């Protein structure tokens, strides 16, 4: 009797290895650019433009240079809220998700590379390029995350997502290590500090564009399944599916509850990540090289944290491990309120604590939500997920910017984010995992 070997597990494993490189590639922008160098560098450019006035005047509004990065990110994420659901609807109707993902990544890498030309007082040019790059990065991540349920079973989901995050921190950390040396010792290669920062921004764009080729080539084109049957061309059908999904979301109350919980606690996480470099340089008095080095330490610890949280989820369940991580975030922003200025050890301890909870909470949130997604609506639901991620995270950045504007200190600004972790954790307690999986028809 002839038996035919089931090659599907091998095919899934091969695609999963290619999928990990999405995080490896994209994290270069998220760490070197969005996480560390862009905000402090934009502030310095904005201060050049403000001059003795001390304020930028935009559309009749006086803006403190120190608040500008928060407002730029806020505008970017508001725009994301409009784009992500449509991109998700388009992605669910095509087998060419890897092509769509790579296209957004290359467009974002181009905009990110143009930050090299942000010099003098042209903060407006740099702000626009960052907004485009950040928007494209989010669209690429929406499509990339929607591939996760197609290349893994429900039982594999936490592991695959956690390993992907670990790859992301490893890739972003490796490039960050190189940029740390360039920014910290620019004289060793015969350049000044400003050029070192600009070259580091450019390196992230090149890294992103080059490595995204691996998942683009290595992931199969899975045919869409169980999409809504609506009339019209691709754009009309995509809007039709979006409307159908939003209308149908009331049939999945557990998924909806998790999305609202994620809106709050992820706003807090994203704002802490995006504001950490500003807090370290402007509030605690460390130079950019030291902050970049601390961010590198966070990357290393976060890689190990993502793997550890993945293993813990297999034993205790993703929901309980995420809640533990949120408790850690509450402790972090509380300690940040009182951490002494220019004291290296407390700042490093704070960085290690961030690293432990950072990778794990984000990786498990992604895989946990995937359990509540009906088949054939992966991209559409992940677009809503990322609308709660980047698309509506302006709550956190706006809160941070306004508290700083009113108080003149980043300490109360970062502590104010505790409310997002409290609200998110409270809502997550109400999520019934087993019921959510039954509603979505998952095993």
Note down, in words, how this protein is organized.
The protein is an all-alpha fold. It has one domain (10-219, 244-440): Growth Hormone, Chain: A. It is 76% helix and 1% strand. It contains 17 helices and two strands. It has a two-stranded antiparallel sheet with strand order 1-2. The two termini are 32 Å apart. The mean pLDDT is 84. It is found in: Cell membrane. This is MFS transporter. Keywords: Membrane, Transmembrane, Transmembrane helix, Transport. Its main location: membrane.
Task: Set down the secondary structure blueprint.
Layout: H1 8-50, E1 56-58, E2 61-63, H2 68-92, H3 97-113, H4 123-146, H5 157-184, H6 193-211, H7 213-218, H8 234-248, H9 253-283, H10 288-316, H11 318-336, H12 344-370, H13 378-391, H14 394-407, H15 410-415, H16 418-428, H17 433-440
Antiparallel strand pairs: 1-2
Helix pairs in contact: 1-4, 1-5, 1-6, 1-9, 1-10, 2-4, 2-8, 2-13, 2-14, 3-4, 3-6, 4-13, 5-6, 5-10, 5-12, 9-12, 9-13, 9-14, 9-16, 10-11, 10-12, 11-12, 11-16
Summarize the structure.
This protein is mainly alpha-helical and about 450 residues long. About 75% of the residues lie in helices and about 0% in strands.
């Amino acid at each position: 009797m002839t038996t035919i070997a089931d090659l599907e597990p091998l095919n899934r494993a091969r695609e999963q290895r290619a999928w990990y490189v999405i995080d490896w590639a994209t994290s270069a922008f998220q760490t070197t650019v969005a996480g560390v160098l862009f905000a402090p560098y934009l502030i310095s450019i904005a201060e050049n433009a403000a001059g003795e006035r001390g304020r930028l005047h935009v559309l009749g509004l006086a803006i403190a240079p120190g608040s500008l990065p928060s407002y730029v990110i806020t505008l970017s994420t508001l725009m994301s809220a409009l784009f992500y659901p449509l991109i998700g609807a388009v992605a669910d109707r095509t087998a060419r998700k890897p092509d769509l993902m790579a296209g957004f990544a290359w467009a974002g890498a181009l905009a990110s590379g143009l930050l090299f030309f942000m010099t003098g007082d042209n903060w407006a040019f740099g702000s626009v390029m960052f907004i485009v790059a950040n928007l494209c990065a989010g669209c690429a991540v929406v499509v990339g995350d929607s591939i996760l349920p197609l290349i893994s079973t429900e039982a594999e989901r936490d592991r695959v997502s956690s390993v992907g995050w670990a790859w992301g921190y490893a890739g972003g950390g490796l490039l960050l290590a190189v940029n740390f040396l360039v920014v910290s010792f620019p004289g060793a290669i015969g350049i000044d500090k400003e050029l070192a920062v600009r070259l580091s921004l450019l390196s992230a764009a090149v890294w992103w564009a080059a490595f995204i080729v691996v998942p683009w080539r290595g992931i199969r084109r899975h045919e869409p399944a169980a999409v809504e049957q609506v009339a019209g061309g691709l754009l009309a059908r995509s809007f039709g599916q979006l409307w159908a999904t939003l209308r149908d979301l009331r049939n999945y109350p557990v998924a909806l509850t998790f999305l609202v919980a994620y809106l709050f606690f992820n706003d807090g996480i994203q704002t802490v990540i995006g504001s950490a470099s500003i807090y370290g340089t402007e509030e605690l008095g460390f130079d950019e090289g030291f902050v970049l080095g601390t961010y590198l330490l966070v990357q290393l610890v976060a890689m190990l944290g993502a793997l550890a949280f993945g293993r813990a989820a297999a034993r205790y369940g993703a929901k309980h491990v995420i809640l533990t991580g949120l408790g850690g975030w509450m402790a972090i922003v509380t300690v940040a309120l009182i951490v002494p200025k220019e004291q290296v050890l407390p700042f490093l301890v704070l960085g290690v604590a961030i690293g432990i909870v950072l990778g794990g909470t984000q990786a498990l949130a992604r895989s946990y939500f995937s359990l509540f997604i009906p088949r054939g609506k992966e991209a559409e639901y992940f677009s809503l997920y990322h609308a709660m991620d980047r698309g509506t995270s302006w709550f956190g950045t706006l809160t941070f910017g306004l508290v700083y504007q009113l108080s003149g200190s980043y300490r109360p600004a970062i502590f104010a984010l505790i409310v997002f972790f409290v609200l998110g954790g409270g809502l997550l307690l109400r999520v019934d995992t087993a019921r959510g999986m039954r509603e979505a028809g998952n095993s």
